[in-house]
C-alpha cells in the first residue's frame, strides 16, 4: 500500500526540528527527521521559556512532561555590583526555567509518540527548491516539504545560496549545569532568595557577569559572561580565582563550574534575505541566530516551527511554496524584532540597570503563536 500522507523531511534534531516534526505528524504528515550526530541529545546547559514557546508545548501535549522537571522562580532579580536594581515578579507573564537536556528529552518524547521517524547519524548536505534532499552518504529523498532546522551553520540554507549577514557582538558566555548547593549559598548570604533568577552584573572596573538560574530542585544553570577581548574572563576551564574574587557569594557553585571544561560562545546575529525557497523552509538558528539577552533563541525557533507546520498543512500541495512565503511575511517580523532588541541589549548591556522585562522587550515573550486570531489582535 502506498502512503497517501504528505511527506516532510527535516534536517536537525534540536528544539526547532523536533517541534516542527511533532506538529506536522500530529496534523497527519509522514515525517522523517535527520540528525547528523550519532545520538539525539541537547547541547548546552539551561534555558528560560516564555509564553510563546510554552503555548506550543501545550498545543503538542508536552506540558505535563515539561512541568515535571522545570520551575517558575519567585522573581527575576538584577544586581549591579551586588546592589539589587530590581526584582521582577513577572506578574501575568508565563515563564519557566529548566535544563536544556530536559526540554530536549520532552520534545523527543513528543516526536516519538506522534510517530515521527527519527534517524541519527544522518547528515543532510542540501536541498533543492523542488523538495529533493541530499545526504552525505550520496542518497537522496523526495519530500512535499523540507525543513532546515540544522543550526547556525545550516547546510540546507547554504546549499540554496540564500544570502546571509552575520554580526558579532563584543561579549560572549560560558554556560554550566551544576548542583544547586542551596544550603551552602544560604550560609554565605542568608538574606538572598536563592530560588530567584539572579543576574549579577559588574561593569566597572571590569565587565564580568554571572546569570544565576535555578532550573529545578537539584540543578542550577549558571552563565558566565565576559567580553571576548578579556582573555582571563573568557578562559575555559574558568579562572576560579578571578570569578570568586568578584562573586564570593557564588564560590560553592563556581567551584563546581571550574571542574568542567566548558566552552566560550561569542554572541552573533544572522539575518537572511529569505527563510524559504520553493518547498524548503528554514527555522531556528539556521534562519535567525540571535543574542541571548531576551532568552528567545529557542522560543522563536519553537513558535516558528509551530506556525510553519500549521501554514503548510492548511496549504494545498501545489500552493505550498506561496504559502511558505506568506508564512514568512506574517511571522518573521516578530522574530526580526526579537533579534534587533536582543542585539541592542547585548551591545548596550542595558539589562544591568534592571527591569529587564517591560515594554517592548516582552513582545515575543507574550506572543501566542497558537492563537488563530493573533495577527488581527496585533493589527488592531
Ligand atoms: N537569559 C538567558 C540566558 O541564557 C542568557 C541571557 C538571558 C536564559 C545568556 O545566555 O542576557 O545573555 C543573557
UniProtKB/TrEMBL annotation:
Superkingdom of this protein's organism: Bacteria
Protein name: FAD-dependent monooxygenase
Ranges of residues in domain FAD-binding: 10-318
Positions of the UniProt region annotated as Disordered: 355-380
Alphabetized Pfam families for the sequence: FAD_binding_3 (PF01494)
UniProt keyword Oxidoreductase present: yes
A GO molecular function held by the record: monooxygenase activity
Compositional bias of kind Basic and acidic residues: 371-380
Source species taxonomy: Bacteria, Bacillati, Actinomycetota, Actinomycetes, Micrococcales
Species of provenance: Herbiconiux gentiana
